[in-house]
Write a structure and sequence with these properties.
The protein is about 0% helix and about 40% strand. With about 550 residues, the protein is mainly β.
């Protein structure tokens, strides 16, 4: 947002610093060349070439502008966007998701409006044709609202993505309520099906299953508070269930991440002080499904223009770091020390002139697919639960979804790669480990920045960790288990390295997610004869071995 943004004076001579704990470079690895007022950002494989493209919504409250995509060719982002929307507007933030369950990521965009002429104030969605977005919006809301943020999520648990938007104008003092547009099997209502029972202007919205009960609660960031609307099995309450106020200013961004790895998602909030409110980056701890109302970590109290946050495990230790940015302020990353967030940055970057950096969104991604890790997660169905959270977020690709050994089609579920969950249109049957999710995430992600300053472009900082630092296809020394020989022409030995004496469950899958073998192992060494559970012959190919959820090992078997 930028109507009253004032230019700062002076040059900054410290360009950036990095630490071994935060493996990011001291200068951008890539910058765009276009002159847009960039605001929202998201990464997705729009043209289906196996690499994530950079999607950006533009305009803010500064100028009528078009939305853009920087396509990714084999790990290299183009510097001039080759896709632009046909319509122009004062666009706010954006969100990617497959809204019509065809396996393609579509683009939802909020409409902020400008001064004195603001455009049409209608949220919109661009549908993906398979090679890119159609330039004309596929859907627009009928009602009109000043809206800075949007998000997609299956709040009603019917297996498709619904759209929520923030609403209201802090600058103009106009109150309005956040609202949701329902998706009816790929057809969106043009009027909201739900609106918040609070008209304090909001500029940030996010869905999150905060209590791990299998439905998405709604969080709304407003001026002076963050509110949560509880979801009861697909029915969202109209009045706030949880409110945090202490030390909160004008909330511009919220993101969720499990910083202490206790299985419950914690909340990070960026509060801006431009309107005279307290400025800060705050983290609220989740206590077994209930968020604290007072932050456990607070940073940037002395700053004035904090505007964005993003969780990402940049150094591969499984504890996500917190990136933050502001208007005319450095991009920073706060290190996570085994569940304790540093309150001073472990890495930061600023241009030579801070006038050239106005951060609106931060995103963790893997532009070159350099550090992708394959993951298989099995969950227990109970005949009632429809939504399952993933252990990692964001994810790069969801490869396959299986229930009771059968691979599901796109129309049977929806998912959010940014927030990390999968939601089914029908609750999976009761079973042990019968809901299996195959996906890939980056162990050492890159950091992207959208920049409102139209003279200096958007930026990408590529992770400096050497590609291929971990070899998933061979034996990992010190891993929970080892597989050898690998590759193999026949039987393979699985050696379990953990000292515990309890039995271990070994599962073996094909690369496309078909379970072919499982066994409960009581000894520390077993030999797999390269055949299926019923003794059937298995052809050569890539197979995935899982031992009690440990890191997936890839084994290439040659025909006997």
């Amino acid at each position: 947002m930028g109507k009253v943004k004032l230019l700062l004076c002076g040059l900054v001579f410290v360009i950036g610093f990095a630490s071994t704990q935060i493996p990011l470079p001291t200068a951008p690895s890539w910058s765009s060349r276009d002159n847009d007022y960039s605001t929202g950002g998201a990464f997705g494989d729009i043209d289906r070439n196996g690499f994530l493209d950079f999607c950006i919504s533009n305009g803010n409250d500064m100028a009528m502008d078009r939305n853009t995509v920087y396509f990714n060719d084999n790990g290299i982002l183009e510097q001039t966007a080759s896709w632009r929307s046909s319509d122009s507007g004062y666009f706010g933030h954006s969100y990617l998701g497959d809204v019509n369950n065809d396996g393609l990521q579509d683009l939802a965009v909020a409409y902020l409006g400008g001064y004195p002429s603001g455009g049409d104030y209608r949220a919109r969605i661009y549908l993906n044709s398979g090679s890119g977005f159609n330039p004309i919006p596929w859907w627009c809301s009928v009602d009109r609202h000043t809206s800075f943020d949007c998000a997609l999520g299956d709040f009603d648990l019917d297996g498709d993505l619904d759209l929520v938007i923030s609403a209201g104008d802090v600058y103009g003092g106009r109150g309005d309520s956040a609202r949701i547009y329902r998706n009816n099997n790929g057809l969106f209502d043009t009027l909201p099906c739900w609106s918040a029972g609070d008209s304090v202007p909001s500029d940030a919205v996010r869905f999150c299953d905060i209590d791990n009960d299998g439905d998405l609660d709604l969080f709304v960031g407003q001026r002076g508070k963050v509110t949560m609307y509880r979801n009861n099995d697909g029915v969202l309450e109209a009045m706030p269930y949880w409110v945090a106020r202490q030390g909160i200013g004008w909330v511009l961004r919220m993101e969720f991440g499990d910083y202490d790895r206790d299985g419950f998602l914690d909340l990070a909030v960026a509060s801006n002080g431009q309107m005279g409110d307290p400025n800060s980056i705050k983290v609220f701890h989740n206590n077994n499904g209930v968020l604290d109302t007072i932050a456990i970590f607070t940073m940037q109290r002395r700053n004035r223009y904090s505007s964005c946050v993003a969780w990402g495990d940049v150094n591969g230790d499984s504890y996500p770091e917190l990136a933050a940015g502001g208007w005319w302020e450095p991009v920073v990353v706060y290190a996570n020390n085994l569940g304790v967030i540093d309150t001073t940055p472990g890495w930061q970057w600023r241009p030579a002139n801070l006038n050239n950096l106005v951060c609106e969104a931060l995103l963790w991604t893997d532009v070159g697919n350099r550090h992708l890790v394959g993951e298989m997660e099995s969950n227990n169905g109970n005949g009632r639960r429809r939504l399952f959270n993933l252990a990692h977020r964001p994810i790069q690709f969801l490869d396959s979804v299986l229930v009771n050994g059968s691979r599901l089609g796109y129309g049977e579920y929806c998912y959010d790669p940014h927030s990390g969950w999968v939601s089914f249109n029908r609750a999976p049957d009761s079973g042990t480990g019968n809901v299996v999710l195959f996906y890939r995430y980056s162990e050492y992600p890159d950091l992207a920045v959208t920049n409102w300053d139209r003279t200096n472009g958007n930026h990408l900082f590529m992770n400096t960790t050497t590609a291929g630092v971990k070899d998933l296809s061979g034996v990992s020394s010190g891993a929970m288990f080892e597989v050898f020989p690998n590759p193999s022409f026949g039987p393979v030995m699985i050696k379990i390295n953990t000292p515990e004496s309890k039995p271990k469950r070994v599962r073996i899958w094909t690369q496309d997610g078909r379970l072919v073998y499982q066994r409960l192992v009581r000894d520390r060494v077993m030999v797999w004869n390269s055949k299926g559970s019923n003794g059937e012959f298995l052809p050569g190919g890539i197979y995935i071995i899982d031992v009690e959820g440990a890191r997936i090992k890839l084994v290439k078997l040659q025909k006997d």
